[in-house]
Amino acid sequence: MIRKTPVAAAAALLLAANAASAQGVTLDDVQVTGRDGRGFNSRTVQVGAFRDLDPLDVPLTNNVVTREVIDAQGARTVYGALRNTAGVTRSQLSGSTYDNISIRGILVENRGNYRLNGSLPIINLIDIPLENKQRVEVLKGASSLYYGLVPPSGIVNFVTKRATAEPVTSIATSVTDHGAVDVHADVGRRFADGTMGLRINAAAGREDAGIDRVKGDRSLASLAYDWRVSDILNIRADLEHYRKDIGEQAAIALPAAANGVITLPPVPDNKRNLAGEWQRYDAQATNMLLRGDLSLGDAWSLTLETGRAETERDRRFSQLNGLDVASGAGNLAIFFANGQRYTNTNHRVEALGRLGTGAIQHELTIGYTHNQREAYSGDSATTVNVPQNLYAPIVPAEITPSFRPGANSAIRDKGVYLFDRVLLGDQWQVLAGVRAADYSNVSPTSRYGAKKTSPNLSILYKPRPHTTVYASYLEGLEETGTAPANRANSGEILPPAVNKQKEIGVKTRAFGGVLAQAALFQIDRPQTSVDAGNRFILGGKSRYRGLEASASGEIGRDFSAIASLVLLDAEIVTVGTANAGELGRTPENTPRKTISLFGEYRLPAVAGLSINAGAYHVGRRAVNNLNQAWVDAYTTLSLGARYVTKLQGRTVTLQANLDNATDKDYWATAGNGLIGTGAPRTLRLAARFDL
């Protein structure tokens, strides 16, 4: 394989441009207006029981990060996209391998809360690629009516690119100042007299995050196929396979408390890694989804979906334990796992129909889902501890341990649901739903079963066609988690429990091309903790009250923006005897304030040229439920520029993005007894050729 440095690759692009000029090829100006359907907000969402509805008709907070926003920012990761929605923070891990995140202080469960095209639960244990995604949606809060047992942090939905009426052929490449290089091809066509469409994406690249010994490679291959079989039958299929093999940055465990207080070390250099390059995170994922839509006359339709998601990984995770803050000395604990495997098999049958006459109409959704989640914990080895120093890192020598077989576990989550959207004239809507859940969870150490009926009720009022005022109440059953590797009861599955959510809000497009939202919410949910024996336990409840506001869209002809704010008051309101000291405390890794703001300005004086900037603020967060220490608030700055032109009649986009522009050192993550640093400043140069 030929390897190029970023400087060499950039030089090659400049030489190509020079050669074109020497041959008499002219670069034509292109005016970018942002009004070609690829703006900063979306007119539809494709998540939950609100599939293909206007966001104004969704009685919950929802955010959409469009392809235009992703492209403008050069985003490559889940967190890179979701940082545009306030309330999103990293959790536990620094993000060198995949993005473990929380929304409103509540962990987004990696095997249930991430969905493909509104349906298939995909497994977020490897960076989910964005090259083949048209947009990323977030439906915040309780979502159990449609998705079964999931925590009320929210659903993250990835909508794939599909073939459009216009043919698509593009080649893109990018380089970073750290040495990462990638190339991406995107081809879409409609054929068979327009009845079939195929969109293919392929990407490959060398990874380098700018962090010591965090290097590797990644690849993606995907296709999205659709077939209008007849006037009454449509079929869609999605297939994607991606892999990533990279060194994993070591985590830092909290120092021991003294008199109930933890003293944190100074924030290390953001390029520092305490792990060796041999400590790899090698993972691959395959997701398959098939959907058929059958018309049953003028009023009813039937949707059948089936899908499977599978992820495998080998891992050499490590964390610095026993840290002496004064000297930096401690022990690096290295955990070994080979052949970990996670699979989700999901089936859905759903009927949609419309009943009623005159001013009262019922839009009914009746469905059944069956989700089977299986896991193999992987072959494991005894944890190895080696000396390490936070301030003067020692590169650990490679270790080859002896492995022992792992164990299997299985979760079955079945549910029948009924959802009725009642339209009372043009101004009022009542949305009512109920789900009957049948859940079982079997592992070598525990067995749980639960049956629960969960209600949902929302009322919407539209004083104007472009404005909605709503109130909603939702209940859901959620899994409360599995004890992680660094706890004494590692692998133990906690029993499910009920969460409740109330929300009132307003949404409007009264400001032209801008969608603005504001909501007050309260979430009550079961609280997990760690007892004196280092056991991961379920004990008590936490309450999250907050205000969320957002706006996205076009402001005039030349400016686009996406902004959001969350003000959060979170408190542990009841506890068990094993964690009595947490009463009245703030749940770990939960900021009181998060703000995101990104804008792009298209310069009228230079056709095709736009500049952009983003600021992302996360407030201070408690490192544990006892609030024995807090990581400081931080704000990062991103800058960028895009130039769109014509080369021999073909559109060419040249782009530069600078993330963490001030190269700030900060604690990016907390939770589960761990803290981690943010990524270093990264300059990415990119070019896309639309052929």
TrEMBL record:
One of its GO terms (molecular function) is siderophore uptake transmembrane transporter activity. It is a multi-pass membrane protein. The keyword Membrane applies. It is found in: Cell outer membrane. Residues 56-154 form the TonB-dependent receptor plug domain. GO terms for biological process: siderophore transport. Residues 1-22 form the signal peptide. Residues 258-660 form the TonB-dependent receptor-like beta-barrel domain. Belongs to the TonB-dependent receptor family. This is TonB-dependent receptor. It comes from Ramlibacter algicola.
